[in-house]
Write a structure and sequence with these properties.
45% of the residues lie in helices and 16% in strands. The chain is an alpha/beta fold and 269 residues long. Helix 2 crosses helix 4, helix 2 packs parallel to helix 12 and helix 10 packs parallel to helix 12.
Amino acid sequence: MSDFLHKMAELSADRAANAMQIYEADRFDKPVFPITLNGFDVIAEIKDRSPSEGALNVTPRSRTLQAANYIEGGAAAISVLTEPSHFGGDLAHLEEVIAIAEQARVPVMRKDFLVDTLQVLEARAAGASGVLLIAAMLSDKQLSSMLDCAAEHSMFVLLESFDEQDLRRTIDLLETDRYAREAEQGRLLAGVNTRNLRTLHVDPQRLETLSSMLPSQMICVAESGLHDAADAARAASMGYRMALIGTALMRSDNPTQLLADMRTAGRIA
C-alpha cells in the first residue's frame, strides 16, 4: 500500500469509528438503480477538490447543476467524492446529488477510501446505489465483508486496481459463485486507475499495460487521466466498457457536451 493510501486508510478508519453503528431497516428504503450500459458509457464524477488539481470551486448549487448536466449528457452513473480531508467531500454532497439523480433513475456511487462495512451502510442509508472499493487498501476479509454487504443491499461495486496484483485479486473473485453472479448482473465492476498514488501523476500507459488481463465477465472501467473524446476512444479500443471521468468534466465549460462526445467516441471505437 502506498504512503498516500496508508494515510487515507487511517483517516477513513477514524471516520468509520465515529459512524452510526446501528441503522433501522427503514433507513434503507431509498431506491437502488442499476447501471445500464448502452455500448461505451461514462461514470461522471463530482468532487470539490483534487490533491493534484486543487480546489474546483464547487458550491451546493453548482453541485446539483453539475449533476443535472451529467444526466442531460447521458451519464450511466454519477460518482460523488465524500472524502473530507483531501477532496473536500462530505456525505451531504452525496445526498444532494442523489436528490437530483433519483428523479432520472440515474445511479449514484459513493467514491471514498472505504475500509469498513459500516461505510457501505452509510452510503446505502444516504441513497447511494453503489460504492467504490480500492483493492490495495483491503485485506481479503475486509473485501469479502464489504462486497457481501453491498450485494445484500443490491448495490454495485466498482473495485479499483492500480497494478497487476490488484487486478489479479479482482479476477480471482470470479472463482466464487456469488461474486461471479454479481459480475454477470453488472453489480461487480473492475476498475483500472492510472494515477500513481505516491506522486499523484497519471501513467496513461497503465490502461494498455493491464488491458490484456481485463476479465471478459466484468464491466471494466478506465479511471483517471481521460480528458477528451480521443481518450475515451482509446480506452474503448483496449476493451474498457466505461470510463470514470472527474476533473475534465468539472473543469469543462460545457460538461454536458464533453460527456456526450466521450460516450459517442467510445461507442464508435
